[in-house]
């Protein structure tokens, strides 16, 4: 009956998303108390605002429980198998820029690119008896990238936060994480491999390819997309 | 997700009996396997291909992605010698890139642990599979990873370079990149040259953090310096290696071509003698070797624990299907899992589900 639009529920990502829609005449806002995840949409009829964690938006789009959703390309590609068959990229929103990169300690002067990382990993495994550990929460993207790059003798260890600290804390030898300015990396004595990022991500408006669409919902969706000029 | 049909199960039972009649002892192994051994063998890649689950007291467990590893473990911990084993059961594979493919299917296997006559054992396994699958009119592909490893071992270059190439035999792209670099075909990165010129490479590098020590970093810089002084691989040797990788012929012609290449790369001669003996052994077992295809690079991308003879059976009219059967020699695996012991081993698996898809053997 109603078109569901999913938007990150917190912080700058939510505010900037509200601004982006506002500039196009679709006013999104939170209702109720600061702590209540409820919102409203003005400017188009029949659209329901759903506030939820950016990390859950890919799953909800793929399951068809959201028609539209704003989240990072990094999360879509990490969380959805064959993402392009589940969702369609409607428009990059021009904020939330972040690169998924691999970083190693600054003191690894002998490691500059994937080729070096692979060679260092082989020697590391021989010296320490276990594979070189790379801390990340982007398991699929990083594994795929390293496989395509022919890197062996590494192991991914899960890190859901403060990933830059894992090297100093001896729970990983290198990290794969998103960064926008690189400041946290520098502060933790890490440097980015020169091969370029695994992925350049930004906040993006996605449409579900699986969501059920009645005639009425189709019309509302078309009107909204028209308004947004995407 | 997929339910195995009674017909597939019956097919598996028939194959099991067939292998038992060929002299194999029937064995079984647990569906849940400790993940650490498989992860150590295959690395992170296996996580994308197998189901891993967590047990708070036993650690990570894996739904068996194949039988070979547990069967080798079982044999190495006290199996009689020589031994022939057969088994049938489900294996589980994640299919991230091919969601349409089955993630649970039956495999029936036959494995031979025998020191006496490795090429004879290669031929025995291949001929058995050939007989079992004959009604389907499949196309057989064969190869020999041992020829390629012998070629790499015989390259006239530093031990480090040979080891680096050997490590990436199963990753063709990385192998090619290394080969180009060692042959002086690809430029040395600017950062590498700067590093090697630096008097104190670690000056200004900040604190040493993490488990990788200063000594390890310095050792790699020394290795890079040594490598920079190493003469490039000769064009003739690179050309010989390329020629080996390009061999794609029926067995007798493939052997002839490889013998020609061995003039420039005599290190492969011993491996070629084995190939010749295998052709004879196959011939003795009634295989028409004059029409049997041989591809020197076959098995390089998908069959990582095989290190000698490799084979697969395919339905030419259904190129969309995975192979009906695959197998090969895995001497090195018995060494890795043997705790000091080793034994030549060869074997293979058949997928009864594929047989059924192709109309059955009856």
Automatic annotation (TrEMBL), chain A:
Keyword Nucleus on entry: no
Pfam families: HisG
EC number(s) from the headed UniProt entry: 2.4.2.17
Start and end residues of each ATP phosphoribosyltransferase catalytic domain: 54-229
Any single GO CC term annotated in Swiss-Prot or TrEMBL for this entry: cytoplasm
PANTHER family: ATP PHOSPHORIBOSYLTRANSFERASE, ATP PHOSPHORIBOSYLTRANSFERASE ATP-PRTASE
Stated role: Catalyzes the condensation of ATP and 5-phosphoribose 1-diphosphate to form N'-(5'-phosphoribosyl)-ATP (PR-ATP). Has a crucial role in the pathway because the rate of histidine biosynthesis seems to be controlled primarily by regulation of HisG enzymatic activity.
UniProt name for this protein: ATP phosphoribosyltransferase
Classification lineage: Bacteria, Pseudomonadati, Pseudomonadota, Alphaproteobacteria, Rhodobacterales
TrEMBL record, chain B:
Residues binding L-histidine: 66-68, 93, 107, 111, 300, 305-306
Annotated Gene Ontology cellular component terms: cytoplasm
GO BP, sorted A to Z: histidyl-tRNA aminoacylation
Repressor as UniProt keyword: no
Sample GO molecular function, one term: histidine-tRNA ligase activity
Top-level taxon of the source organism: Bacteria
Database matches in Gene3D superfamilies: Bira Bifunctional Protein, Domain 2
InterPro entries in the record: aa-tRNA-synth_II/BPL/LPL, HisRS-like_core, HisRS/HisZ
A UniProt-annotated Pfam family: tRNA-synt_His
Alphabetical UniProt keywords: Glycosyltransferase, Transferase
Stretches assigned to the Class II Histidinyl-tRNA synthetase (HisRS)-like catalytic core domain: 12-198, 222-348
PANTHER family per record: HISTIDINE--TRNA LIGASE, MITOCHONDRIAL-RELATED, HISTIDYL-TRNA SYNTHETASE
Protein name: ATP phosphoribosyltransferase regulatory subunit
């Amino acid at each position: 009956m109603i078109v569901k639009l999913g938007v990150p529920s917190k912080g700058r990502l939510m505010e900037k998303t509200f601004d982006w829609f506002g500039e196009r005449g679709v006013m999104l806002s939170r209702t109720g108390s600061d702590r209540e995840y409820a919102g409203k949409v003005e400017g188009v009829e029949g659209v329901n605002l759903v506030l939820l964690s950016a990390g859950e938006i890919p799953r909800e789009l793929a399951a068809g429980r959201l028609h539209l959703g704003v989240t990072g390309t990094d999360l879509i590609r990490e969380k959805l198998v064959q993402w392009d068959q589940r969702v369609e990229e409607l428009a990059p929103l021009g904020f939330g820029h972040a690169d998924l990169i691999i970083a190693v300690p600054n003191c690894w002067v002998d490691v500059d690119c994937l080729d070096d990382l692979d060679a260092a990993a082989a020697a590391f495994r021989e010296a320490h008896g276990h594979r070189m550990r790379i801390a990340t929460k982007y398991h699929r993207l990083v594994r795929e990238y390293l496989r395509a790059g022919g890197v062996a003798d590494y192991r991914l260890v899960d890190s859901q936060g403060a990933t830059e600290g894992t090297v100093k804390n001896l729970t990983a030898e290198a990290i794969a994480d998103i960064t926008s300015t690189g400041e946290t990396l520098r502060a933790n004595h890490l440097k980015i491999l020169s091969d370029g990022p695994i992925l350049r991500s930004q906040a993006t408006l996605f449409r579900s390819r699986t969501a059920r669409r009645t005639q009425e919902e189709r019309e509302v969706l078309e009107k909204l997309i028209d308004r947004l000029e995407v | 997700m997929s339910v195995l049909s009674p017909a597939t199960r019956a097919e598996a039972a028939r194959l099991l009996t067939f292998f038992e009649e060929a002299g194999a002892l029937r064995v079984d192994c647990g569906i849940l396997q400790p993940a650490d051994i498989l992860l150590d063998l295959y690395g992170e890649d296996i996580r994308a291909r197998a189901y891993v689950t967590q047990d708070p007291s036993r650690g990570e467990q894996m739904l068996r992605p194949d039988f070979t590893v547990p069967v080798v473990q079982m044999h190495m911990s006290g199996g009689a010698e020589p031994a022939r084993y057969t088994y049938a059961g489900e294996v589980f594979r994640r299919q991230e890139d091919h969601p349409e493919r089955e993630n649970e299917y039956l495999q029936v296997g036959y494995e031979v642990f025998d020191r006496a006559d490795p090429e004879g054992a290669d031929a025995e396994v291949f001929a058995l599979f050939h007989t079992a699958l004959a009604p389907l009119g499949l196309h057989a592909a064969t190869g020999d990873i041992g020829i390629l490893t012998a070629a790499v071992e015989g390259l006239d270059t530093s031990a480090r370079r040979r080891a680096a190439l050997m490590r990436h035999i199963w990753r063709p792209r990385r192998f090619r990149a290394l080969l180009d670099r060692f042959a002086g075909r690809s430029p040395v990165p600017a950062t590498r040259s700067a590093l090697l010129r630096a008097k104190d490479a670690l000056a200004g590098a900040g604190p040493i953090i993490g488990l990788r020590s200063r000594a390890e970093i310095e050792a790699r810089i020394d290795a890079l310096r040594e490598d920079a002084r190493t003469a490039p691989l000769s064009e003739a040797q690179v050309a010989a290696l390329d020629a080996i990788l390009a061999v794609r012929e029926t067995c007798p012609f493939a052997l002839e071509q490889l013998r020609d290449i061995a003039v420039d790369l005599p290190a492969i001669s011993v491996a070629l003698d084995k190939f010749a003996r295998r052709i004879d052994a196959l011939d003795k077992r009634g295989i028409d070797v004059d029409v049997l295809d041989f591809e020197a690079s076959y098995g390089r991308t998908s069959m990582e624990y095989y290190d000698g003879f490799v084979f697969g059976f395919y339905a030419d009219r259904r190129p969309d299907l995975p192979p009906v059967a695959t197998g090969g020699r895995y001497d090195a695996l018995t060494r890795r899992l043997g705790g000091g012991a080793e034994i030549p081993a060869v074997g293979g698996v058949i997928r009864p589900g594929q047989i059924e898809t192709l109309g059955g053997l009856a």
